[in-house]
Amino acid sequence: MSNLYIVATPIGNLEDITLRALNTLRSVDYIACEDTRKTSKILHHYNIEKKRLLACHTHNERSSAQGIIQLMQAGNDIAYCSDAGTPSISDPGSRLVESVLQADLNVIPIPGVSAFATLVSVAGLRDESLFFAGFLPHRGQKRSKRLQEILQIPSAILLYESPYRVESLINELACLIPDRYVVIGREMTKFHEEFLRDSAKNLAENLSNLQQQGEFALIISHNHKC
C-alpha cells in the first residue's frame, strides 16, 4: 500500500532536519508542499534532486488532496512538508490527512522540529499543563473574545503571533494579566534567535527592546506570577 508521509522540516536552522526525514524525502515518488520554493531550498541544500513537487497549501488543500489520493491509488508514495516545522500544527496538512484517511490510505508521521516544542523546552515552566491556542484571529471582537476566553483556561497558554501584531498582543496581555509570567521566543533556531522572560506588564513597558521581525511564539504561564 502506498503511504503519505507527514514530514517535519526545520523552523530556521537547516541542520535540525532528521535523518529519517531526509531518507523519506529521497525515497518518495512525489513531494507535496505548502510552498514549492521553500521546500526546494531544503532539497537543494541536501542534494535531493529531480523530485516532482506538488503545491498543497491553505487555499487549495481540499482540491489538491484529491490529486494526491489518485497518485497514491496508482502506487506512488508521497511526502508532505509545510513551510517550516510540523504540518497540521497551525499549518496546512490536517485536511490532506483527513482526506487520505477517508480514502482508506495510509498516513505515517515523520516527526521533528516544531516551534511549539522548541519554546516549551526552554520555558522552564514546571508542573503546568499546556493549552495550545495557535494563532488568534487577526483583529476585532473575535480576537478580543478569543484572547479573553483562553486566558480563563487553568493551563499555560501557547500562542503564535506575527511580527505585525505582537506589540498589540503584549499590550493586551499587560492590561488583562499584568502579573502573569510570559516567555517570548523570536526567530527560534535562527541567527537572531531571542528569548524574553518577564511579567506581561514589564514586557509591555520594554517593547522598545523587542525586535519586531520574524515569527513569534509565546507561552503565558498560569501558575507562575511575577
Automatic annotation (TrEMBL):
Which UniProt keyword terms apply here? Cytoplasm, Methyltransferase, rRNA processing, S-adenosyl-L-methionine, Transferase
Where would I find the Tetrapyrrole methylase domain in this sequence?
Answer: 4-203
Q: What is its EC number?
A: 2.1.1.198
Q: Key word Iron present in the record?
A: no
Q: Which GO terms describe its cellular component?
A: cytoplasm
What family, per the record?
Belongs to the methyltransferase superfamily. RsmI family.
Q: What role does this protein play?
A: Catalyzes the 2'-O-methylation of the ribose of cytidine 1402 (C1402) in 16S rRNA.
Return the protein name. Ribosomal RNA small subunit methyltransferase I
Q: Which organism is it from?
A: Entomospira nematocerorum
